[in-house]
Design a protein that fits this description.
273 residues, alpha/beta, Rossmann fold, 12 helices, binds NADP nicotinamide-adenine-dinucleotide phosphate
């Protein structure tokens, strides 16, 4: 149990910070007394204390001083001043986990004096419902036990896989940005049905459940998506007619371009391009 006896701090109690803390409590991985959240927003802290019973403070350094694991969950534009603020209080025995988009482990490590273990994670918004897709990468000084701690935390809010940091920008372009791609697909299909006369709400529920169900088929059967597609495609039937319309519009090339464009942008933002 990588989280047994660990005190976990979260710097930034916004959407993601709350989702992580709530996920850890929901899964019974830690008790509220082992969780410490800091934020510049008093109202946010009062809300989190009231709702989740965790320790809260306005002072980031107070959290770092007690935590075995510290999660950085602030927006990218405030992370450098935050690291400068907490740097002197960081100890090499700690694990630092960052979910801050576009900030490399090298950049974070450079703000600390010693060989501090840093693990970087790319989560996505469905973490808010415990259905996230997260990838975890080890920094130079992070050992297996540090990565195991990060994986245990993010397993509380969804599926989690380990990848080399060189691939994390691709993950950003795939599953990080992925929910938005899915919303656009859903909206398009809904509009398609509305155009033909189906009520919008009926279309919304049917296609969203279809997307969730198809995703579950892929994850739970382990089958290649092409095989699952072939299984529902009768020769001369309705599905192949719909698929032809998608292929005729270049749907696969568009999806591949979307991942490439988002990955390029992530690389630009990490300063790698
Ligand atoms: N949401 C996602 O799906 C997602 C996905 C991938 C990665 N991420 C990453 O996760 C991080 C957090 O995102 P989020 O959506 O949770 O953002 P958020 O809701 O804005 O939460 C950030 C919180 O940190 C507070 N804060 C600002 N400066 C601070 C400081 N110096 N010390 C302590 N707290 C401070 C903010 O307060 P104020 O609001 O008053 O400024 C806010 O409550 C971002 O870096 C983002 O790139 C998020």
């Amino acid at each position: 149990m990588p989280l047994r006896g660990q005190k976990i701090g979260c710097l930034g109690g916004g959407a993601m910070g709350e989702a992580l803390v709530a996920g850890l409590l929901r899964e019974g991985l830690v008790t509220p007394s082992a969780l410490y959240v800091s934020d510049i927003n008093h109202e946010r802290l009062e809300y989190l204390q009231h709702k989740l019973g965790v320790n809260v403070t306005i002072d980031n350094t107070d959290v770092v001083k007690v935590a075995d694991i510290t999660i950085l969950a602030v927006k990218p534009q405030v992370v450098v001043p935050l690291l400068e603020e907490i740097g002197p209080a960081i100890r090499v025995e700690q694990t630092i986990i960052s979910i801050v988009a576009g900030v490399t482990t090298a950049k974070i490590q450079s703000c600390f004096k010693g060989p501090v273990p840093v693990v970087r994670v790319m989560p996505n918004t469905p973490c808010l419902l415990g259905e996230g897709a997260c990838a975890v990468s080890a920094g130079t000084y992070a050992a297996e036990e540090n990565v195991a701690k990060a994986m245990a935390i993010f397993a509380a809010v969804g599926k989690v896989l380990a990848v080399p940091e060189s691939m994390l920008d691709i993950v950003t372009g795939l599953s990080g940005s992925g929910p938005a791609y899915m919303y656009v697909l859903l909206e398009g299909f809904i509009d398609g049905a509305v155009r033909l006369g189906l009520p919008r709400d009926t279309a919304r529920i049917l296609i969203a459940q279809t997307m969730a169900g198809a995703a579950k088929m892929v994850l739970e059967t382990g089958e290649h998506p092409g095989k699952l597609k072939d299984m529902v495609t009768t020769p001369g039937g309705t599905t192949i007619a719909g698929l032809f319309a998608l292929e005729d519009g270049g749907v696969r090339a568009l999806m591949m371009k979307a991942v490439a464009a988002a990955t390029d942008r992530a690389r630009e933002m990490s300063g790698l391009k």
